[in-house]
Amino acid sequence: MHIIETRNLTYAYPNRPPALNGVNFIAGRKARIAVIGANGAGKSTLFKHLNGILKPTSGEVLIHGEPITKANLREVRKMIGIVFQNPDDQVFSPTVEQDIAFGPANLGLDEETVHHRVESAMRLLALDDLRTRPPHHLSGGEKKRVAIAGILAMEPQVLVLDEPTAGLDPQGVTDLIGFVNTLPERFGMTVIFSTHHLDLVPELADYVYVMDRGAVAAQGPVPAIFSQPDLLARTRLDVPVLQRLMRSLREAGVPLGEGYTYEEVEAAFREAYRGRP
To answer: Across residues 42-46, what is the average pLDDT?
Structure first.
């Protein structure tokens, strides 16, 4: 059984065309899923349905095979944690420590359990030195780490990240990739994220949904999606830099194999030039 499934999910904001139009989406345990698309494609609206922030106009969202209802909404939000693009939408307590404690405390957990979860989340996100700082005095990258820690302290089965690298410097992006990639194996967690930076997708995802104008235009493993430049162009997306480079070199006669992550591309170059001076 899937952790998350949407069936013919449709949603329209008041007095506007549908933001989602018949979306079918599946996420299983320990999956790493990217949802990509141009501005207005429906990514954030889809995410807000996954833990009941928005209610479908039609269709349904199933969590472990059960529709989201008022009766199970609290349990759903324990399982599905969302980190929004702008951390200021989530970070509001007087100190970092209190902010991270807010979620687990509102789950009704005892004080000792809340303390343990907060300490674990701060260690994971390297926030110990910031525990007494007011969140609104932090940098954008620090706020994002606090927002992620607050969700992780609730120990969800699924972590949903809406544009997680927005506002991060290059080192922050590198750190985030390394951290997020530990979650499926270390904690059995499913990770779903959206991004405009398609170069990050092979580093963070195994499976991709391409959204366009509120619908799923394509889905499949990373190689299947990024080997279709016409699809990406049609949905107003750029081919990632590494794939553009390798395609240009192959067209110039360089005998390169396929590669999507940095490690795969490096291996392809080494193989192409093995034994050559």
So the answer is: 96
